[in-house]
Design a protein that fits this description.
- The chain has 7 helices and 8 strands.
- By secondary structure, the chain is α+β, with helices and mostly antiparallel strands.
- It has a 6-stranded antiparallel β-sheet with strand order 1-2-8-3-4-7, with helices on one face.
- The longest helix has 20 residues.
- The protein is globular.
C-alpha cells in the first residue's frame, strides 16, 4: 500500500496532468488570461492570503519579507486541515471548496499571487508543492507576456520548507513580476500608517 506522502504526490501529478490538458487549450488559456482583468491591484494577494488564514480558523499569522526584497513568506496556525479539495481549489479557476458567502469562493482569490510573483511554494499538513509561471516573448510582437498555465499546474516538491514551529501552513511567494514594485509597499496597503482600521478588523476576527 502506498504511503500517504506517495498518494499525495500521485494526486498532485494527476491533477497537474488534467489541468495541463484542459487549460492548455485555446478556451482554457482564455480563462487564464481573464485573471489579468480581474485583479486590477497587484497587492490584493495580501488580503486573499489572510482571508484563507481566517477560513482555516487561524488565530495567528506571520508575514516576512526576505532581505533582498524578492520573497514574501506568510504563515498561519489554521486548525482546519488542508486536504485534496483545497489543493484542487488552489489549482483551478472558477472552482473552490468555499461557500458562496466567502470571499474568493470561486477559487480565483489565490491566483492573485501570480499577478505579483512567478513562483508560489506551499506546505503544511503533509503537503509540499509549488506553482511556477513563466515570462515568455510574444510570437508576433516580441513583447514579454505571462504564461499563466503554471498557475494551475501544481508540482510536488519535497524541498519546499515546512511551516515554522507554531504554524500549520506556509506560503512562500518569490520572483517579483515587477522588480520596481517593492513588497513593503504591498504590506503598507494592509497596515497603512494613517489608518489602523484593518488591524482592528483582524483583531475582531480573532487574528493576531
Amino acid at each position: 500500500m502506498a504511503s500517504v506522502s506517495q498518494q499525495r504526490r500521485e494526486y498532485v501529478a494527476e491533477l497537474a496532468r488534467k489541468n495541463r490538458e484542459f487549460y492548455g487549450t485555446t478556451d482554457g488559456r482564455g480563462i487564464l488570461r481573464s485573471l489579468e482583468l480581474i485583479f486590477a491591484y497587484r497587492w490584493v494577494y495580501i488580503f486573499e492570503l489572510i482571508q484563507n488564514a481566517l477560513d482555516a480558523s487561524a488565530q495567528s499569522i506571520a508575514i516576512q519579507v526576505s532581505d533582498d526584497g524578492d520573497t514574501l513568506i506568510l504563515q498561519h496556525d489554521g486548525t482546519r486541515e488542508f486536504d485534496e479539495p483545497d489543493v484542487e481549489a488552489l489549482s483551478k479557476v472558477f472552482r473552490s471548496t468555499k461557500s458562496a458567502s466567502s470571499v474568493g469562493f470561486m477559487g480565483i482569490g489565490f491566483k492573485s499571487v501570480f499577478m505579483r510573483f512567478q513562483e508560489a511554494r506551499i506546505s503544511g499538513w503533509g503537503w509540499t508543492f509549488r506553482y511556477e509561471v513563466e515570462r515568455v516573448k510574444g510570437a508576433e510582437y516580441g513583447d514579454v507576456q505571462t504564461d499563466l498555465l503554471g498557475a494551475v499546474v501544481p508540482i510536488w516538491d519535497p524541498g519546499v520548507p515546512r511551516p515554522d514551529p507554531g504554524f500549520t501552513t506556509r506560503f512562500e511567494l518569490s520572483t517579483r513580476m515587477d522588480q520596481n514594485a517593492d513588497l513593503e509597499s504591498d504590506l503598507a496597503r494592509l497596515l497603512p500608517d494613517t489608518d489602523r482600521t484593518p488591524l482592528a478588523i483582524l483583531a475582531v476576527a480573532g487574528l493576531e
